[in-house]
Design a protein that fits this description.
single chain, alpha/beta, 7-stranded mixed sheet, 4-stranded antiparallel sheet
Length: 419
C-alpha cells in the first residue's frame, strides 16, 4: 500500500500529457518501419535541428571527464557553468546592456523542477499562483502535485484572440482576497505556450507594477525566448534594468535547454533571481534538484560557442521553424480553420470548432479521441489547456518533416470525415 498522496496523485488517474505521450512513445510512427504507428504532434519537442546539434555534440573534446566531476560537485551549478550562463544570458537576453551575475543564477534539473522548487519556496499549501488560460497544462501539475500550491487560471477570450490583460488578473486577485485566500504570485509565460504570442515590454512592465502593488512574486517562464522566428521584438525580463523594477526581490526568471535547443534529455533548468532568501532556499534543496556535472560541462561548451550559436544554430533553427509552420498552413489551408498566428515556439493554436457537431467539451474530447484512436495522431485539445471555448487544439510542428506531413494528412482526413 502506498501513501494517500501517491495514490491520489499518480494511481487514481494519469496526467493527460504524460499519459498521451507514453502511448505514442510505445508505438511511434516511422516511415520505413512502422507506418501504422502513432504520430505525436502533441509533445513539445524540437527535432528540426537534430543534425546540427548532433554534429556539435560529437565534436572532439565536447565530452570529457575529470575526477572531481564524479563526486558531489556543482549541485546548484558548477562555477564555470554558472559563469557561462551569466555571460550567455547577458548576451542573448539583455543585449549586453546589463551584465548578469552568476551569484543570482541557479541550475536545476529541468524547468518543471524549477517551477516546483519556486512553488515550494514561495507558497504554503493552498497558496495561489495565477496564470493566464489557455496555458501549458503541466504548469498545474508542476506546482500542485507535490508542493500543493494552488494554480488558478485567469481566462482569456477567443473573441479578441486571447489578448492578455493585466486588469483581469487584478480582478482575480481582489476576488481571492475577498474570499480570504492567499495569492502569492503570477506566472507569466513569454513567449506564450500554446498561443505562440510574444508580449511587449510595456505589458511586461504592467505585470511588474501589478505584482509590486499587491506584493506578489512574478515568475516569468521564457523557455521559448530564442525561438522567436519572425520580426516581433522580444523583451526578456532580464533586459529590464534593476533600477526600473520597484522590488527586484519579487522577480524570478526561468529558462532551460529543452525547447530553444531541443535538449529535453539534458534536464537543464535555469533560475535567475535577486532574492537572496530564495537563492538560499534553492541551495538548501539542491541535493534533490541537481543535474550531473558532466551534462553541465557539455553545456558550458555548447553555450560558450558564440559563433556557432549566432551564425549556425539560431538562424537555421528559425528558418526551419518558419518552414514547418508554413507546411501546416499549406496542408490545412483549405479547411477554413482559424489560426492564432504564432511568432515563437514550436506550435500553433488552431480552431477546429467548425468540425464539431456541438460546441461542447464532450464533443471536443470526442474529436480528440477520433484523432487519437482512429487517426493515430496526437494533438492536445484546448480544454486540457483550460480553454473555455471548445474546439481549439495545439499542433506541434517541430517534428521531422516526414512525420509532420503524415500527421497533418491524418488530421485532415479525420476532419473531412467528420463533416
Amino acid at each position: 500500500m502506498l501513501s494517500r498522496r501517491a495514490t491520489n496523485t499518480y494511481l487514481k488517474s494519469e496526467e493527460f500529457l504524460m499519459k498521451s505521450f507514453m502511448k505514442c512513445y510505445a508505438d511511434p510512427y516511422c516511415q520505413q518501419t512502422n507506418q501504422d504507428g502513432m504520430v505525436n504532434l502533441g509533445t513539445a519537442i524540437n527535432q528540426l535541428c537534430e543534425d546540427i546539434i548532433s554534429e556539435k555534440l560529437n565534436e572532439t573534446g565536447i565530452f570529457e571527464h575529470q575526477p572531481s566531476w564524479q563526486h558531489y560537485f556543482g549541485l546548484n551549478g558548477t562555477p564555470d557553468f554558472l559563469q557561462t550562463l551569466a555571460d550567455f544570458l547577458t548576451r542573448k537576453f539583455t543585449n549586453d546592456e546589463d551584465p548578469l551575475s552568476k551569484e543570482n543564477i541557479r541550475v536545476v534539473n529541468g524547468v518543471s523542477s524549477s517551477l516546483e522548487a519556486l512553488a515550494w519556496s514561495l507558497c504554503d499549501p493552498g497558496d495561489i499562483i495565477l496564470t493566464a488560460l489557455p496555458t501549458y497544462s503541466r504548469f498545474f501539475a508542476d506546482m500542485q502535485e507535490r508542493v500543493e500550491a494552488k494554480v488558478i487560471g485567469v481566462h482569456l477570450s477567443d473573441e479578441d484572440d486571447f489578448e492578455l490583460r493585466p486588469e483581469l488578473f487584478e480582478q482575480e486577485i481582489l476576488l481571492r482576497k475577498e474570499k480570504g485566500e492567499v495569492v502569492r504570485g503570477i506566472l507569466l509565460c513569454n513567449p506564450h505556450n500554446p498561443l505562440g504570442k510574444v508580449y511587449s515590454r510595456d505589458l511586461v512592465m504592467e505585470f511588474i507594477d501589478l505584482c509590486t502593488k499587491y506584493d506578489l512574486h512574478l515568475l516569468v517562464d521564457e523557455v521559448y525566448a530564442l525561438s522567436v522566428f519572425d520580426s516581433t521584438p522580444f523583451t526578456s525580463i532580464l533586459s529590464i534594468p534593476r533600477e526600473e523594477i520597484p522590488n527586484p526581490n519579487l522577480i524570478h526568471f526561468l529558462w532551460g535547454l529543452s525547447k530553444d535547443f531541443g535538449l529535453a534529455g539534458f534536464r537543464t533548468g535555469v533560475i535567475h533571481t535577486y532574492n537572496k532568501d530564495l537563492l538560499k532556499s534553492l541551495d538548501g534543496m539542491s541535493i534533490f534538484t541537481s543535474l550531473p556535472a558532466h551534462i553541465q560541462q557539455v553545456s558550458v561548451k555548447l553555450l560558450g560557442d558564440q559563433r556557432w550559436i549566432d551564425d549556425v544554430y539560431i538562424p537555421t533553427n528559425h528558418a526551419r521553424l518558419r518552414e514547418s509552420l508554413q507546411l501546416v498552413k499549406t496542408m490545412l489551408g483549405d479547411l477554413n480553420l482559424r489560426f492564432i498566428r504564432p511568432s515563437a515556439g514550436l506550435f500553433c493554436w488552431i480552431d477546429f470548432s467548425a468540425y464539431l457537431k456541438k460546441s461542447t467539451k464532450e464533443e471536443e474530447i470526442a474529436m480528440f479521441e477520433r484523432l487519437f484512436e482512429k487517426g493515430k495522431v496526437y494533438i492536445v485539445p484546448g480544454t486540457e489547456f483550460g480553454c473555455i471555448k471548445p474546439g481549439w487544439f495545439r499542433i506541434i510542428f517541430t517534428v521531422n518533416p516526414d512525420v509532420l506531413k503524415e500527421g497533418l494528412r491524418r488530421i485532415k482526413e479525420i476532419l473531412i470525415s467528420s463533416t
